[in-house]
Amino acid sequence: MPAAGDRRVAILGALVGLFASAYLLIDYVFGSGICLTGSGCDIVRASSLAYPLGIPMPLYGVGYFVIAVALALTDTAQVGRFRPRRAILMWSLIGLGVMAVLTIVELVVIGAACGWCLLAALASGIFVLGAVRIWRGGSGTQGDAAQSSRARRRRTANTDATRAATRRFAVATASGLGIALVVLITVPLVTSGGATVGTGVSDAGAPTLGAGRHEVVVFSDFQCPACAAAAPLLTELAQEESIQLVYRYFPLASIHGNAVAAARAAEAAAVQDRFWDFHDALFARQTSWSNLSAPDAATAFEQIASEIGLDIGRWRSDAASAAVANDVASDERAAREMQLAGTPTIFIDGVRYLDRVDSDSLRQALDDVGSD
Description:
single chain; 372 residues; alpha+beta; de novo design (two linked rop proteins); Glutaredoxin; 2 domains; five-stranded mixed beta sheet
């Protein structure tokens, strides 16, 4: 029988992976507001690649790690043609390979890092380490028939004690991770009062588009890729007169170095009633200015202002003014007061929208609101 430590490594990896996947699934379905890598989780979740076959990716992770936990707790003695040690090793290697591919897709294709996904990938590596050690640890045979009855009893007692200790470790680890999961779910609810209704989410001076019966307020960051993906969908609904779209600034300056400058540039365009033209251009060209130095980004913003026909002298003056800076900061303060953690954050008629940000889901949400 493999040493208890070998099995515990596999159990730890499987349970941590299950914990990360379960929390991600809750985040995908209900929204959580907690991400280990800034807005990375929101960006990944907004990607169509996060829903293969229309199923949230974390649900696959939950299924994989549930089986991993079961295998890690299985007796390694061969039963018929079933070889548990080989099954554990093969399952762990399959998981590691899939996690490696998904991590590459996340970082290279989507261009963002979800902390919980990375934790699940790390957990799969720990599971592999434990599985390899189990595979190399012995076949679990009970010894020769020639052994003395005392030696067999002693070996059986040691085996039973090891199994009991392993079960206690599994229960203790699962309990600790379960408590952590509950805390992660409840803390955002407690700190926000448990409400999903935003008090005063709209603002009389904010840029608006459309005249639909439903007011949709979006707190957005011009440098956020998820916001860039959501913007055309919201604009389309506003142009169809399905909604009245209200834009509010929420630049995440800690992770997006040009976000505040972009927001001020857009607000300066709003002074000349050209906010939505500037808004569309900023998002359409996001990849071209996001990683520029501050002076180069300012040049890119000025080019947009020139192309859409703004009075450049006035635009420069407004973009650098205290009034514009205060307007952007006011929206940011409102977002912080509402405990908003990421972008885009959307409210439909004052109620926070927590579903996928795609055309079908948004339209369904508007239909549901209309039928209430």
